[in-house]
Write a structure and sequence with these properties.
It is built from 14 helices and eleven strands. It is α/β, with parallel strands linked by helices and 386 residues long. The protein folds into two domains: 210 residues, Rossmann fold, CATH 3.40.50; 156 residues, Rossmann fold (3-Layer(aba) Sandwich). Strands 2-1-3-4-5-6 form a six-stranded parallel sheet, sandwiched between helices. Strands 9-8-7-10-11 form a five-stranded parallel sheet. Strand 8, helix 9 and strand 9 form a beta-alpha-beta unit.
Length: 386
Amino acid sequence: MQNCTRTRYAGRPLRILAFESHDAGSHRQVRMELADRGRHDWRWVTRPGRSWKWRMRTGAAELVQEAGRSGLLEGEWAPDVIFATSLISLGDLVALLPRGMRSLPSMLYMHENQVAYPVRTEMGAGGERDMHFPVTNLMSMLAADAVLWNSRWNLESFCSGIGGVLGHCSDGVIDDSVSKIKARSRIAWPPVQEPEGYDDLRRVLHNAPVVVWPHRWEHDKGPEELLKLGRESKAGGFQLKWMLLGKCRGDVPGAIAVFLEEFADDILHAGYVEDRRMYLNMLTQADWVLSTAHHEFFGIAVAEAIMHGCLPWLPERLSYPEITPACSHGISPMQPPGNPAVIHEACRNHLEPAAAPAAVAMIEQCIEELVLERIMPMPGRELSQP
């Protein structure tokens, strides 16, 4: 059977029918890197990056409908594998495909999980989690033949919290859900764009260090902590310059509005940068990348800034200890390293698996292994990690 499989795919790429229900931000960036750099034949079906809650409930039907309109469900092009991302109900998606496609191997890529995603508590929000969404994640994982996670933190935070979610069901029992998930899971960091001419990036810090905060201006990115750190550094006599490069949706959070007023003389830029090249160039002009996030399952914007020459000023939580080397933990403009060049090099080496060519190759390797394992299972597979 294995020889038959190799013959079937010899001489041509795998045909991957891929679904993205929230084509924006990191979801879109990963999709574009896979489409541009992948050596296999990716055919993407997408929906706009909005209304994510509706996408988790109705997105499967919308995506299959769109795939049909695009001619991907019939004709000469026939997929070898189904690939879907985390804001989709995978079981619904597969059930809605034509009968002949329902037995294809399926892979779920977890950009985030709804167990660890922060709930809103500001501006009168209730702070209560809608249990439908983490349960949808779980059902998708159990329906998938393989699950890829963009960080080990993402996997572990889901596995450590899903039991509490299921505890709300008074008479339902799903045996060994965590072990079932881990048995089909692997870690595959998302592709992050490297700079051109990395070795030419400036290594000398500015006299007044330039700090970039590359987050959406929303509650889960910790604007209150940003304001607190800004005030503490100023009270301690440290002069910092700031670049706030994230996108603002709706009203500006109160803490950011105060920050913009209090630090107006020290802000070099505040607001979303539409031009991608200009954005990356601004990263090369900064000394530090700061995160105050309470939600981050990998941290593409942070990894991108580090690759473009910023030193990491990061909390010891979420995925940050995973994506940075130990020698960079705990440093800040107030506690800078003795030799920044050493830290730059260590960070670069640590993030090599996330560099776009390597990360795309890893994801495609996992897909190749899934297709082969579907023909000849490989028991006892252990989790792999970059």
